[in-house]
Design goal:
About 75% of the residues lie in helices and about 0% in strands. The strands form two sheets. It has a two-stranded antiparallel ribbon with strand order 1-2. It has a two-stranded antiparallel ribbon with strand order 3-4. It has a single domain, classed as Up-down Bundle (Amino acid/polyamine transporter I), CATH 1.20.1740. It is mainly α. Strand 1 and strand 2 form a beta hairpin. The termini are far apart. The chain is built from 22 helices and four strands.
Amino acid sequence: MNGVILLIIALVALFSGYVFYGKRLAKKWGVDPERQTPAFEFEDGVDYVPTDSNVLFGHQFASIAGAAPIIGPIVASSYGWMPVLLWCLLGGVFFGGVQDFGSMVASVKNEGHSLGFIIKKYLGSTGKTLFLLFCWLFCILVIAAFANIVAVSFGSVAGNIQLTSSNGSTATTSCLFIVFAVGLGFYSRKFKPSSLVQTIVALVLLVSAIAIGFNSPITALSVKSWTYIVFVYILIASIVPVWSLLQPRDYLNSFLLIFMIAAAVVGIIVAHPTMELPAFTSYSVGGKTMFPFLFVTIACGAVSGFHALVSSNTSSKQIRSEKDMLKVSYGAMLVESLLAVIALVCVGSLGGMPKGASAQQTFALAIANFLDILHVNHNLSLTLINLAISAFALTSLDSVARIARLSFQELFTDENQAKEAISPIQKICQNSIFATVITLVLGYLLSKGGYLNIWALFGSSNQMLSALALSAVAVYLKKSGKTSKNVWIPMIVMMAVTFSALTLLNISNFQSIGTESFVFAKQGLQLIFGVFITVLGLMISYNSIKVLFFTNSDVEIAAIAAAKEDA
């Protein structure tokens, strides 16, 4: 199979899904361009900030993409390219896009509140507490995995192994991105430039950072040193106003990420690589069966619970018009699915992951090989692609650390509690710095084992969060008198996938206790997290299904009461 054909199939399928299915959902769910959004109603200059749809699309895409849509499909390609392709396309259109769009709609229609608030509104305080605790634990897993990915992409030395020479350039450019982003944020807030001027300024800063980074690489720091630096950075990024760092850095990165996808597409078209992987290899690979592990390995390339947190915790507070929601949420998800297909073509062109190479190195190497045909400098290509991947991971870290902090604070916040009744412990836990620090400490401990050691648990928890988010959206839609049937099948399928995967992982980690390979920082912590997440997921799912399938909606109850009065 030729990679160009796979790319064309993906483009047609995803574009059709957006035009026909996405717009149908927008109509069914009552998207109203004339309704005032929470960004204007509660504008505070910190979280509620009305934002141009193009800038917000960049933030959403950069935040949700991370490195997962690259790593997931490449690792899952061991099952063959056909099952990966099918899940990326079907999952993106009918699962991931539905979840992301539904989460944003539910949040915007509820004053920009998180899914935790929505669950409390429709399922009660216990449901909210369970969901927030689940979200917090999941965010710790994301921080652990992505912080390790970023540190590896920056570090010059890991143990006794000398890493690729492009890592130092990637590190320099990424650091400059952060500095330039702060300047861009203050410039945009003070002078309010037009979209054109803002774009020109962003492109100048982008090119400058790349040029400086390429010529002045940071090569003196190891992966371990960069790990410390990354955690200090996300501590700061999670508590400062979104306009000062999060938005402008995501905006800068969005150009780089779009360039990376465009370069990959051009490279595939020019090189028209042959898929050296078989369409299907085996139902079981490395002791892991296709169901459920194909789905949890691909993760964000098809559906990701993390997306629901971004859609309902940050982006929903920045929507200027409800008509922008389809583009920002559903559209960003489908672009991510396209990226996953590109990653599949990349690993397919190499016949699998080269021995000793990471998934991100495999991706960068394949694209650099494609661009060799156009006589593009190979090292420059590697640097830019590695930079883009680290940008994906860093933007996800920005967002997930903020979401973890908000979730932890919300766990100890009661809207109906008087200020004088708040206990000292509650006040400490509601503190932004404390909430962030305790989250990052746990994330650091898990990150020490490397991202591959926790990827399966991260993917399973991610998909479980998706099932829970879909159930929350379904309950909201039912209670609001809107059709929720489009959410039922994705919700049930994701529950089956994730409970199966988590059960198998918990059994595997439990059986490792007492063996020579057992390390508490790896299998031990994973077992604790896995058991907690499984129990929380079961409790939330039970309450959601009970409300969804065994109680009438408020609209139905009102209609029944009115009918009785008329009779």
